[in-house]
Design a protein that fits this description.
DNA-binding; 8 strands; DNA-binding transcription activator activity; alpha+beta; four-stranded mixed β-sheet
């Protein structure tokens, strides 16, 4: 081993800061873009939001001078013979002294900006969802109303603390683990009594240690087939889940019709009683693109960016750069902030242009999908759109990532329009979505007494010109939540 210096030629690719910012802006969805712009408006005093004020018509509108629309410092001096123009000259003298010598102090927002922020925070608090009651809180409130001894209450609280709504509210911790290592038999009896107390709370079936125990806790004598339900849950739950009804018939002597009736009645029981306390978060979706159809049936693309403010660079600071009294430090600060503002404005314009072109190319390719529905969707890869638009495939990926399009068929994510596919025997491209729809159609129309196996489904698809491997059929069937042919079999329709 030795250490030394030697020349070496190497080719590298470096992204300019402007290109990095452009890619970041392109990838942002609408709400995130609005937040980014608000942050830049707060941090960059040279960046201004263009506000179009409504025109108020009055009798003096035609006689109003163009100078009236200018700021106080931009208005021309007007000589008035009836006064000594003291106010005008004082304003002129105060223009330069009012400008700060250094920009190290934080930028002070205008009263309108502060009022907008206050209104936004008020709306956020007003629209915020109240925190729902958790499973643990719900059980603790019920426990507090019971008259039980302190030892049992302490263990019951410990049991409740281990329950999780995400697992259905099952007790997954052994009782012995909730006690001290040197616990006695009497302590274990207290723990069992505490568990019975917790299991008596609502929702029924809570703190069960197994699925069968959870279902048995929910049984009531008023059920029509109470005894049969108890037998199936206690002894044949696995066979019932696997649709092995003949084995249950042989072991119990029940008829197939009775077993199916009892199985249907079991559907009213909740296998995960604690899951009702799960917090369901429904994210708000704001479409970035609007797809509309004109009178001639052609699809038109427009960006829903009305909520994105128009930005410009302050003319005041541009003129300040030309002022000889501007210090080097101040000049450097203004140049840096001007460049930052211009980069952001150009990045937003580039985002608008790229999104429009990508969306137009996608809609042109998937026109049959919007005309006829999901069964007409065609295979599409991002590389195809990249070649049509003339950009890199990663640019297309960023453009469609987390972007939504409002269409006549609802609001859909852009990336869902990119689907894989295969070719039929006739050489026609067909999307996997179409194959899944055809698979669902075959299963819906099958003979439930003799359901189609995966091999049979492969043959049925091949008869329609779709060559698909058996493992692909099995994979899609499982993804679609369709059970196997054994589990779909209706034994009451089986030929004897």
């Amino acid at each position: 081993m030795s250490m030394g210096l030697r020349p070496e030629l190497k080719q590298t690719q470096t992204l300019a800061p402007r290109m990095i910012q452009s890619m970041e802006i392109l990838q942002l969805p609408m709400l995130a873009l609005q937040e980014r712009i608000e942050q830049e408006l707060t941090e960059n005093p040279l960046l201004e939001q263009t506000e179009v004020e409504p025109i108020v018509a009055d009798d003096d509108s035609d006689q109003r001078s163009p100078n009236d629309n200018r700021s106080e410092d931009e208005r021309e001096l007007v000589v008035n013979d009836n006064s000594d123009n003291k106010d005008d000259f004082e304003r002129l003298e105060n223009i330069t002294p009012e400008l700060p010598n250094t920009f190290d102090e934080p930028f002070r927002r205008s009263s309108n900006q502060m009022q907008d922020d206050a209104d936004r925070r008020h709306d956020l608090m007003a629209n915020a969802q109240s925190r729902p009651e958790s499973l643990n809180d719900y059980l603790l409130h019920q426990l507090a109303e019971l008259d039980i001894d302190d030892d049992a209450e302490r263990i019951a609280e410990r049991i409740i603390s281990t329950l999780d709504a995400r697992t259905g509210g099952y007790l997954q911790t052994p009782l012995a683990d909730l006690l001290t290592s040197d616990h006695s038999a009497a302590d274990y009896e207290v723990a069992e009594r505490a568990l019975q107390i917790v299991q008596s709370l609502e929702p029924t079936g809570i703190a069960a240690r197994s699925l069968s125990e959870c279902l048995l806790m929910q049984l009531r004598p008023e059920f029509e087939h109470y005894e049969e339900m108890e037998v199936l849950i206690s002894r044949h739950l696995e066979d019932l889940a696997a649709n092995r009804l003949p084995q249950i018939q042989k072991a119990t002597g029940y008829s197939i019709e009775l077993i199916q009736t009892v199985r249907d009645e079991l559907q009213v029981l909740n296998p995960k009683p604690g899951s009702q306390f799960l917090e369901t978060h429904v994210p708000s979706v704001t479409p970035d693109i609007i797809l509309e159809q004109d009178e001639e049936g052609n699809y038109q693309i427009r960006l829903d960016d009305d909520r994105v403010p128009s930005l410009n660079v302050s003319d005041y600071y541009r003129r300040r750069l030309q002022d000889p009294s501007c210090s080097p430090e101040e000049r450097e600060f203004i140049k840096r902030k001007v460049n930052s503002a211009q980069w952001l404005i150009e990045a937003i314009q580039q985002r608008r242009s790229t999104l429009t072109r990508v969306a137009e190319a996608i809609v042109a390719h998937q026109k049959r999908f919007f005309d006829e529905g999901p069964e007409a969707i065609e295979p599409l890869k991002m590389q195809q759109i990249a070649e049509k638009v003339g950009v890199h495939v990663t640019t297309v990926s960023r453009a469609v990532n987390d972007k939504w399009m409002q269409t006549p068929r609802g609001i859909i994510p852009l990336d869902r329009l990119f689907v894989g596919g295969t070719q039929t025997d006739d050489g026609e491209d067909v999307a996997w979505v179409t194959i899944r729809l055809k698979l669902q159609e075959l299963i819906d129309n099958e003979d439930k007494g003799e359901p189609l196996s995966d091999d049979s489904l492969v043959k049925k698809l091949a008869e329609q010109g779709m060559t698909v491997a058996r493992r692909t059929v099995t994979k899609y069937r499982k993804r679609m939540g369709i059970p196997s042919s054994r589990q779909r079999k209706d034994w009451s329709l089986t030929k004897k």
